[in-house]
Design a protein that fits this description.
Growth Hormone, Chain: A; about 0% strand; disordered C terminus; about 425 residues
């Protein structure tokens, strides 16, 4: 159930980020962000009202999808606002601070969530979003940011085809572990999703007001940065989700102990995001933080995977630390690189496309690894609802392979030149 609830949230993010970008262009960035924050808060409250028994799973999956839609409406605004407010020489550090703060809340999330669940029950994890949403809306009201809107009619066909194609593709990937890789249902879902995706791309390219500006992918540095972001996002979510389940079930830790035990991973990831901005600012090259990060991520993921069968927590910490730092390093640098690569007037569209592809990477990664984990799972464990070490190792192996394949791709495609502007003192 937990894996499905996570996958549907990430899938909703990937499918509806383009809709958020379209709304931001038509009705304004702040209006769209406000609507997303309100929807996210409302859906969080509805999650807390989930019924008990057999109806809990379908209810939570449906409401989590709505929560993902709310998050998707907020996402396209953030990066483009930072890109507009900060000059190029400061943008890398600003994006690193933004990503680092997000990782900081990721550090606090497992601990706060575990404490709330242990003291007040799991529903309190969703209820806490209500005051957070209220505070967010209050800060938006005080923000002095432009709310420019182009106006015009909202497209319906393009979003529907994009959403349908992504849902069917991810469903086919996720279920192939249950149905079988050569089952007719798997092949039908994948073929239907791929066909719908082709139709969606043609519709977008032929539209005068496209849902996504896919032509931005013709800018090579931008396309490279987006592709690498896609490839790293999946492994990051895989190790976080499946690592959490492993700590909770295989090691038999309590909820609070599980949240605390994740600190090496998420704290190291937060440190990596802050370090990324410093390295980009100091060396003036995106290659340094990205290649350093991918190298550390591969080594850390392999080390953690190797330590899983021991069921000893301390043996897993070095891999968690290295993987966390490694997967935190690339994102801010890649964000700054792709924003640098596009004209200023295209940055909002670039942000939307980047966020869409990043979240799609997470959804595809979780779905594919879910299939691998299900295929490696023991039937006896299915009846008890316990995830085996073999299933977790299969999930981690997929993450290791993706990261290992991404490293040479980054070496061969990232620009070798040092960005202009000279070296500046990063400690100022």
């Amino acid at each position: 159930m937990m894996h499905g609830v996570v996958v549907v949230y990430v899938l909703a993010l990937a499918a509806f980020v383009p809709v958020g970008g379209m709304l931001a262009r038509r009705i304004g960035r702040l209006t769209t962000f406000r609507a997303g924050a309100e929807l996210f808060a409302i859906a969080s409250g509805l999650c807390a009202l989930a019924p008990s028994g057999d109806g809990a799973e379908p209810y939570l999956i449906a409401v989590r999808a709505v929560q993902g839609v709310g998050g998707a409406l907020m996402m396209p605004v953030t990066t483009s606002v930072i890109a507009d407010v900060y000059e190029e020489q400061d943008r890398g550090r600003a994006l690193a601070v933004y990503a680092g703060l997000a990782q900081l809340f990721l550090v606090l999330g497992p601990i706060v969530g575990a404490v709330l669940t242990q003291l007040l029950g799991w529903r309190s994890v969703f209820l806490v979003n209500l005051p957070v949403g209220a505070a967010c809306l209050w800060m938006i009201a005080r923000a002095r940011l432009g709310n420019r809107a182009q106006g015009g009619a909202l497209s319906v066909v393009q979003p529907l085809v994009v959403i349908f194609s992504l849902v069917v593709l991810v469903l086919g990937l996720y279920q192939c572990g249950v149905w079988g890789f050569t089952d007719a249902r798997t092949l039908t879902a994948l073929a239907t999703g791929a066909g719908a995706m082709y139709v969606a791309v043609r519709l977008i390219l032929n539209s005068r007001r496209p849902l996504l500006d896919l032509r931005l992918l013709g800018i090579r540095p931008y396309a490279v940065a987006v592709a690498l972001t896609f490839l790293v996002q999946g492994p990051q979510l895989i190790v976080l989700v499946h690592g959490t389940v492993h700590l909770r079930q295989a090691l038999g830790l309590s909820l609070l102990a599980t949240g605390t035990s994740l600190l090496p991973l998420v704290a190291a990831s937060a440190a990596g995001t802050f370090l990324s901005g410093y390295l980009l600012d100091h060396y003036r090259s995106v290659r340094v933080p990205v290649l350093l990060g991918l190298t550390a991520a591969v080594a850390g993921a392999v080390a953690w995977t190797t330590a899983l069968p021991s069921r000893e927590y301390l043996w897993q910490v070095p891999g968690m630390l290295l993987a966390g730092v490694g997967m935190g390093l690339p994102f801010p640098a890649l964000s700054a690189e792709l924003m640098r690569a596009v004209p200023p007037d295209k940055r909002p569209d670039a942000s939307v496309l980047r966020q869409s592809i990043r979240q799609l990477g997470g959804a595809v990664g979780l779905a594919a690894v879910g299939a691998a984990a299900l295929a490696a799972h023991e039937n006896t464990a299915d009846r008890t609802g316990v995830i085996t070490v073999a299933a977790t190792s299969a999930a981690f192996a997929v993450a290791c392979c993706v990261l290992a394949a991404t490293l040479p791709l980054a070496v061969g495609t990232l620009p070798r030149r040092v960005r202009t502007g000279g070296r500046r003192n990063a400690s100022r």
